Amino acid sequence: MATNSFKNVELFGGAITASLPSDYIDASSIRQVPDHQEVYLSVNGFNTIIFDLAERVSQLPTDHDALSFHLEDIVESGDACEIWHTDTVGLPNFPPNTPAYRLTATIIPQATAANGAFLPSRPHTPTYTVVLLTLIRLAPQSTDVVVTINIPHIPGEQEPLDQVNFEQGQMGSLVAEGVRFQDEIMNTLQINDWGLFGGGE
């Protein structure tokens, strides 16, 4: 069922705020989360939204290379990953011309037979996961803000990979909902205390 309501959430002690789906809960209430992350879990499924404050990637020549770098950082060794779409992102609550980019990718786990048949290792193992990753580059703060929405596709519960076509914009209902969440987060994301990054705005 689609989520139609959002709630304003304080992240990193209120230094950052954003609107998140109302049926997502703070993962730190049930497990430990690193200090540089905020993780929210869907109470109605397996989706997650992760905010990560990472050291700015400065050794790569372009912002799009940095975007791919942050994606590769979350891909497990041996998993197959494909990027389907990239574009720029508007951030109405950030300083003008703040560089921001997003991508849509699929990650297929290594637990796949040679003929492409899925070999689940445990219950609720996804056949593939759609990743909606947004990168916000804060050069003066030497920080990359990475916001990731992970949408695992569980056998028998969501659309199989062969029934979606990302090149043609046929994303399936769960991914379409995730894109809506992504848009809402970016439209409301705001840094209230730039001291979070150890310096001024």
Give a verbal description of the structure.
- By secondary structure, the chain is mainly β.
- The chain has helices at 63-72, 173-188; strands at residues 6-11, 16-21, 24-26, 37-42, 48-55, 80-88, 100-108, 128-138, 143-153, 190-191.
- The strands form two sheets. The protein has a seven-stranded antiparallel β-sheet with strand order 3-4-5-9-8-7-6, sandwiched between helices. A three-stranded antiparallel β-sheet has the order 1-2-10.
- Strand 8 and strand 9 form a beta hairpin.
Helix-strand layout with pairing:
Layout: E1 6-11, E2 16-21, E3 24-26, E4 37-42, E5 48-55, H1 63-72, E6 80-88, E7 100-108, E8 128-138, E9 143-153, H2 173-188, E10 190-191
Antiparallel strand pairs: 1-2, 2-10, 3-4, 4-5, 5-9, 6-7, 7-8, 8-9
List its salient traits:
single chain; 201 residues; mainly beta; 7-stranded antiparallel sheet; 3-stranded antiparallel sheet; 2 helices; 10 strands; 13% helix; globular
Largest sheet features: 7 strands, antiparallel
Binned, the helix content reads: 10-25%
Structural class: mainly beta
Instruction: Measure the end-to-end span.
Output: 40 Å
Low-confidence stretches: none
Helix and strand pattern: EEEEEHEEEEHE
